[in-house]
Design goal:
Elements (H helix, E strand, L loop, with lengths): L2 H13 L2 H4 L12 H4 L4 H7 L6 E4 L6 H11 L3 E6 L5 H16 L5 E6 L6 H12 L3 E7 L3 H4 L2 H5 L2 E4 L5 H13 L11 E2 L1 H10 L4 H13 L6 E2 L1 H8 L11 H15 L3 H13 L4 H16 L6 H15 L4 H14 L5 H14 L18 H4 L34 H26 L4
Parallel strand pairs: 1-4, 1-5, 2-3, 3-4, 6-7
Helix pairs in contact: 6-7, 10-11, 10-12, 11-13, 12-13, 14-15, 15-18, 16-17, 16-18, 17-18
Length: 446
Amino acid sequence: MSLFEEAERENLARAKPLAARLRPRSLNEFVGQTHLLGPGKLLRRLIDQDRLGSVIFFGPPGTGKTSLARVLAHETDCHFEQLSAILHGVKELRAVLQEAGDRLAAGDGGTVLFIDEIHRFNRSQQDALLADVEEGVVTLIGATTSNPFFAVNGSLVSRSTLFQFEPLSSQEITDLIQMALEDRERGLGREGVAVDEDAIRHLAEVCDGDARQALSVLESACLSLSEPKHLTLDVIREAMAHRAMQYDASGDEHYDCASALIKSIRGSDPDAGIYWLARMLEGGEDVRFLCRRLIILASEDIGNADPAALPLAVACSQACEQIGLPECQLTLAQTVAYLACADKSNAATRAISSARQDIQQGRILPVPRHLRDGHYDGAEQLGHGQGYIYSHDQQQGVAAQDYLGVEREYYHPVDRGHEQVLAERLQAIRQTLRQGKEKASHGPAT
């Protein structure tokens, strides 16, 4: 290669984004995912012993899924092929599989097939992989930001080992930033960039564990400055202001954030509840979905411990329909804060679940004759409604009467909030009702 060609190749390499230039070239350069690649961990053992089977890497963007797949291409003795589910279709996939089969038949070794964004393949495209993965014609490495249990065919998931990638820690991001600033060959070392410690610390903390985002912001900040380049906290903050927040309103982020919101309110943490609400609103979440979840929670987790919770949640939904965003964020925040601080009870939830379980298991009770409808011709002849005691005619408004036909209690109020009052009243009510059951048991059969 001539000096001119070498210079041209170097210029092309340096034209790549900083994050692409700093991709690890070996496992020793790989940063993060120690729960997968640390000493003695399963994935590390499989790589060290060159026994890696078909795997699916899934996790947030910028956590090293594609980078690790590229590293594995150099660590294995197999032929390496790469496809992108965004750019390639069944035609290209079948061609790669055919070549892999021919290579294996000729004794030229196996093939590692890396498919980036594998969840973008439709069902038929994923099905085209099954036979060759099953027979070992190719070793599949799939990478996806989506939960494979939702986004990848179950048959393909069952043939692969799943490894979940986690966001990088602040320290790991800091190490990457330092590497980028010091590397003279691929990083910013030649440019003599000075960076304040608080700027590095801020960038490492607010990039959400996304290595690609951290390096992209660092590069943008550097490109925006003239010589001499000095990155301050304000420069980094300005560069971070233009980042795009990752939130898939129909994927994992939607379900995970909704789960975090509900569990935070159930756990009586208004601060966490407000944060997850803000996260979903910033991501463009459907306000009607949020309102529905709050209404459900008001009954499921608060119930009669605070009877004001349900009407407040319903009023929140109505208000959000009338005023819309951005103003309805105030109503949502008020409701989340109230529900989080409210007394909690799942007594009603457990009551209906227990009753339905009885019914599903075959406990179908006939309606007692005195409770049956008596407002039609012939009802009196059948004895329907006879013996019914009108509760309002009783001194306490409660009649000593059997309403079920068997001894069964479903609703057990908790000793919190308004349910504490209900529990005391219910104790007296059940004592009166029990007298009715005893009377019915000694009377004529119903």
